[in-house]
Amino acid sequence: MLRSTLLLCCLAGPALADDSPWIGDWAADPAWCAAAGRTGEVPEAPIRITATEFQGYENRCKITETDPLTVLPGAELVLECEAEGETFADARLLVIDAADSMLMLVPGAEPLRLSRCASAVAPG
């Protein structure tokens, strides 16, 4: 789905030992990491990705499928989301391009660079 876009954005990436390096709190602006405990409540807070859920401001998605990339560290996530009273299917392509940096690709949108927040996230 989004993999063809990936080839245009990245040709190589670091090998990471973690099977799910995308799990954690990620922010478009590193200053938003200060609001990591308020994910979903305030707009300037990081997104939170666990093994089963993708949560952002006023939206929450259940991860229904995780398809790890074979060449680069990352995965395509298939999501069932709820936002503003609506439910819909969605997808995200996540590419870890450095230890604390991730590129997120969303169909029909510009790629978004995210920085890992230092706060720990419990898996699940």
Automatic annotation (TrEMBL):
- Signal found in the keyword field: yes
Q: Which UniProt keywords apply?
A: Signal
The organism's superkingdom is given as Bacteria
User: Is Signal there in the keyword field?
Assistant: yes
Q: Where is the signal peptide?
A: 1-17
Q: What is this protein called?
A: Uncharacterized protein
Taxonomic lineage of this organism? Answer: Bacteria, Pseudomonadati, Pseudomonadota, Alphaproteobacteria, Rhodobacterales
